[in-house]
Please model this.
Amino acid sequence: MADRSSAGLGERLAAIRAGHPGSDPEMVAEVVHAVLATMSGDLSAQETSLLAEVEALGHTIACAKAEIAALRFDDITDNHIPFATDELDAIVEHTATATNAILTCCETLDDVAGGLSGEPAAKLQDATTRIYEACGFQDITGQRITKVVATLKTIEEKVAFIVTTFGRGSPREEGVTPAETPEETLLNGPQHPTVAMDQSDIDRLLASFE
Amino acid sequence: MPIDKAINVLIVDDYKTMLRIIRNLLKQIEFNNVEEASDGAEALAKLRSGNFGLVISDWNMVPMTGLQLLQEVRADARLKSTPFIMITAESKVENVVAAKQAGVSNYIVKPFNAETLRDKIEKVLVHG
Model:
């Protein structure tokens, strides 16, 4: 008897949810609470327990919605993430400008080295070689920052999905990420130094093909 | 066996700074005939209209990647034997394997130093 009642109640709740997708769980909880109060003594202990759980569930959902709304996710998607990506873009731009200035100086030093001979020329060229090598950092950091920006974009999409699902309005379907082509799966950018293969690892791997 | 440093070298990278760095490093090891391309498509056009003895290319470029450029070069009857060095931050095993299968002559992982660049160029120009 109790099981049949529980099943019937569940079905009715599901039907109400389907018919009123925008209904406020807090309101449902209040209605259930009111019904429970009027039916005191008419329900079995199991039915009372089930309805109390439904009431608590409605309250929990209402609290979660209020908390999500209070977090102001819009700020994340409208302000914080665009600000962060703009800052990262500025870092790339500034480092590129600085690197090019360094390279210009280095090229001047190279020209000077060309007019010298012996040890001074060799020392100067060795120094400029080291500077050229070091300036490669701009390419690597640029690629790493591009990866971070892509990660921020993904977070932005996920946050927007959470907001529309739980925060307000009706849920929308999460954007479908297009499948990567085999070529795209190979574009991973710089690996973390602790896990990346170094030149000697790559030389060994290439040699294994010979 | 002496290396012909008068050959035309095509360097391909979408980072202008990187092109500048590689050009200067090549100049220091006396490769002075250097041309630049900022993506695979531009590189392919230059290769087909010119006469290059070495290609040094980045991988991660759009719209045509370095790997696609390599595949196009190896599929072209006139260009297929051109030495091709990939310089890239892509350092996963599958990247090296894919490049090797596509016919790369050698593979340099970024960040690299001048000695590695010199060593790999000598290897591909002496041994092919």
